[in-house]
Give the backbone structure.
Amino acid sequence: MTTPDVPDLRTLLRAPAQTPAQTPVPAPAAVPTPVPADVPAAPAEVPGVPAPVPAGTPAAPAPVPTAAPEDALAALPATAPGGFTPEQARKDVPILHRTVNGHPLVWLDNGATTQKPRQVIEALSAYYGAANSNIHRGAHTMAREATELYEAGRTAVAEFLGAASPENIAFVRGTTEGINLVAQSWGRSVLQPGDEILVPVLEHHSNIVPWQLLAKETHARVVPVPLTPEGEIDQKAYADLLSARTQLVVVSQASNVLGTVPPVAEMAALAHRYDARVLVDGAQAVAHMPVDVRRLGADFYVFSGHKLFAPTGIGALYMTPEMMGAMRPWQGGGNMIESVSFERTTFAPVPHLLEAGTGHISGVVGLLAAIDWLRSFDREAVTAYENALMTYATQAMATVPGLEVIGSAAERIAVLTFTLAGHDPASVADWLDRDGIAVRAGHHCAQPALAHYGLESAARASFALYNTSDEVDQLVASLRRLQAGA
Ligand code: PMP
């Protein structure tokens, strides 16, 4: 294999962004597009499973519901306003063209992780094939190039979230690490005995447990904010719980188990009246709706790249300038210092202060590629499409005897958590898997939210922009066969 051409990569690094910057940050770099690398375009063949269809296979036809479970179902428009169709995304995602247990894969586990477009896969290969280096500390060309890429990723994330500056962004492993970072770096130095952290019952365990650990250490209190029967955060109870003791309110922009999209901006505005800070968990939101952290009023915002079509092991934390000033070292090591001596060590400014050790450079490259891929679509149109798919799926699921969807919030992302009379959730997931349909079963790391409905476990179908109404029909048909004892 010939060595990929470095000047070419450098040209790509300097290419202008595809979409105009929303914020006064420096122009973002484009994603390193494929260099001639030996990346398999399609996933490896799985033993016992027919070979996957290679990427670049002509797109499937528009998503006309093929086998609507009932005539009464509303048809899903093949095209969302703005012109988005799921095939525009599907054609880029090789894994969606494989088979599982002899059936075409129906990936409805997007809440757990999303599948990766070839642009992301190829960006990783291009990076390792032509640009791999450690960053910041090397005084050579490739170290500078890798640094440029890494910082281009920071700029892209800042723009993607509507942050004022790339400096507001620290790279982390994911949402969980971002939340733990805030708890340790900010919370430990700020919280006093008797202070309160308001945590909705809706939250993922990773937005509960770090606060419990912090509360234990600081003698602060975690105060649960109750849910309504529909699975919304009880806004009256929330307003009543806020007080001068409240130091922090945490909330997910979208729930991974009920799909609920709470009124985060209103909740943040209310919290700020009490001088409390607000942390928003964007893990489930980033892939499904445009995000503007400043409009949301988030003091902190965290997300995981792998839920955004990027690799695992990379995510980002956004902090306001005020919160940047309140961050303390949480892990020590290289990259986060200015100078070290046994007499006196001085520290680098945020965000570098929060990034001890060698970062996940290729992860940032993949995240950059994923953001660029997502930005190639009309985000509003994607959201409109996913909302229409959710409406369609909700109606279709209602035709399955004994199926109960958990939660009915007025605003939701495309997540359907359900129980099926006569079958435990694990056996439902197992049955669907035999038909090549991937859904998750279990407590979804949201035990308090499920307990609100008297449940310990449920099955969950979670959708993304590349899912089609045809896949909804396959899910429903399979569930109906299970109920029919077929
Ligand atoms: N918060 C929410 C709402 C989530 O859905 C998840 C992942 N299921 C997380 C936090 C944790 O994300 P990660 O495991 O990528 O850190």
Summary: The pocket of 4'-deoxy-4'-aminopyridoxal-5'-phosphate is lined by residues 174-176, 204, 206-207, 252, 256, 281, 283-284, 304, 445 (CB under 6 Å). The chain has two domains: 45-108+378-483, 120-375.
